[in-house]
Amino acid sequence: MLPHHLARAVAEGWPLLVPVGCVEFHGNHLALGSDTLFAEAVCEGIAERIPAAVAPTIDYGPTGYALTGPERGTVDTAGEAFGGYVKEVLRNFWEMGWQRVQVIIHHQGMDGPEALAFRKAAAEVTFEQMRAEYGRGWWGNQAPESHGNVWSRLQVGPTILPAAASVAGGDHAGMWETSLLLHLRPDLVEMERLTAEPLWYTVQSGCPSADGNAELGERMLTAMVDAWVAALT
Description:
The chain is 44% helix and 7% strand.
C-alpha cells in the first residue's frame, strides 16, 4: 500500500486484517511455515471479497517447542518479549486510525500462547489508549455509545470460525492441514516423506495425513473465508 491507499482504507472504515502464524515443524512432509501460509490465505481471500486491507504477517511467535526443538526448524519466542512486541504493533494500528483491527491466527487455538499474547495486548492497548484520549474514569464518565465501537477495535480470532467447522477441521500436519497446503502450495508438500517417520499426529486414527487431498483443502479454505466474510460484514 502507498500512503494514499492507507488513508482511503482508514477513512472508509475498512477492517485491517493481520495474519499470524509461526515457524514450526509440521512433519516431514509439510513446510515449516504452513500455519503462516494458512493465515495469509484466509486474509487474502477475505480481501478479495470485501474492502479490507491486509497487514504484513507476524510469523515468529511462541510455539513452546511443543513438537520439536530448533534442530528441526521450529522457532519459539518467549511470551513476554513477543507480547510486548505485538502490543506495540497494535498500538500503532490504533494510532493510525483503524476502527477495526482483526488479528487472524492459525496456531494452537485461542488458548495457545500466541493468541493469548495478542488478546492480552489488545485489551491493554484499548484501556491505555482510551485513558490517554479521555482521561481517568473515561468509561464511567460517559455513556459507552460516545466512545464508538471501542471494544471491537482490536479483535483476535482463529482462521477456522465455528461457522466453518463442519467443513474445515483442525489438526497438526494431519489430513486437514495437509489438504490445505496441497490446495494452496502443492510444491511445498512431499507426501512420500510420510512413511520415513510415522509421527503420531500424521498417522492418527480418523484424519491421517495420507488422506489429505487438494479438493478437501479447497472446500476448507472456501468455508473459512466465507465464515470470516460473514463475520466482518
